[in-house]
User: Fold this.
Amino acid sequence: MLKNLPSEELKRMTYQEQVKLFELAKDRSIELLDILNLNGYTIDDLVYQNSETREWRGGPPRELNDFGRPPNSIPIVSFFTGCGGMDLGFEAAGFNHVAAFEFDERFCKTLRRNRPQWNVVGPPTSSGDISDVEGTIATLKTIIQDPFDGVFIGGPPCQPFSVAASQRFTKQGSNYKRIGFEHDINGCLLLDYVEIIERFKPMCFVIENVPGLRDLDGGMQLRSTIARLEQCGYEIEDPIVINAAHFGVPQFRERLFVVGTRNGRQFRFPQGSGKLIGCGSVLLRGMGYALNSETRAHKLNSVIRYCRLEYGQRDYLGRVDRLDPCIPSKTVIAGGSRGGGRSHLHPEVPRTLTVRECARLQTFPDDYVFVGPTARQFTQVGNAVPPLLAAQLAFSMAESVFGVCSDTPTTNPKMSVSAVSAYHQRSLV
Assistant:
């Protein structure tokens, strides 16, 4: 007989009880969520066949509030801001946020919801479109001085350079995506950003992208872009690929960074740590009343497959992986142009991660709210630079480029391999 008890009066199911419930749902053609609800359960009461046999005991990652950096008055302008991951990191390091350019209105709503004091240049009040170079320059002229004694930060949309996108199709196919600078729109946005840098000559700039930007055409396009900026008087460090997991982020995530300066000071990349933070540090603690925590309405057959997975094992039909709580998660993805890419499976509950859980893996604070349809929330989170990584880049920049001394540091112990030039060695994992 079906139990009609409130969930709080029940203990979490055993796997054997769960199998019986699944069989009942099949026999009566009842949807998974309906059978759970009828029995006083939710999807978070489900378990894997092999559950809770691994546990992360190393503590949580550092939070942005832990830095406690007083304002340093160094101004920043961000481009392709998205939901503000890199901006949050620079904010935590004490930088003065001047403007954020973003053309997607839903992302602008997220920025304004969380940081109403920021000057968000984007819909509905303006376009925020960097491909309109002259319009962007005209807007910037009303905001900053030329030359700009601050920092430009930006990560042009990365799909044309992405290995993950290209893996979906063959090079001969019409849908092949990794076409780099030949992409009619996104491939040119990097060059549009470069043109804006040339025009305002910020004291320092950051270009962030996927590692594929480095490898495209054997690196010729990137070297050409760097040479163009060097002709403007910039001293540019060799581009490096940084794995966020080496900087206290509970996620394996490689990103390419190019940093240039024009004040005679050399930017020093922060040093990584030999300690990795398991994803269980953020996924196995309670959600409380955190927003963006809605779970996906999974089908019964999918959950039955998920339940049989071991830690770290992949469900090839659904193309999702059960995470291991003792190591960083796989890369949080953004999904396609319409959003809604498949997220990974929770380490102890046989379901995909929520937006909030993905945001925790990215080191966003729990009170940072993502606006818009769920699919687009996943896109915002998956496209972002982890704020914790951005904060450490910002601290290194304040000290090495602007001479702002600080005893608030990057992670320790130091590990030189993470700062090796991307032209010579890929970062680990």
User: Anything to note?
Assistant: The CA atoms of residues 47 and 97 lie 45 Å apart. Confidence is low (pLDDT under 50) at residues 1-10, 161-181, 408-429.
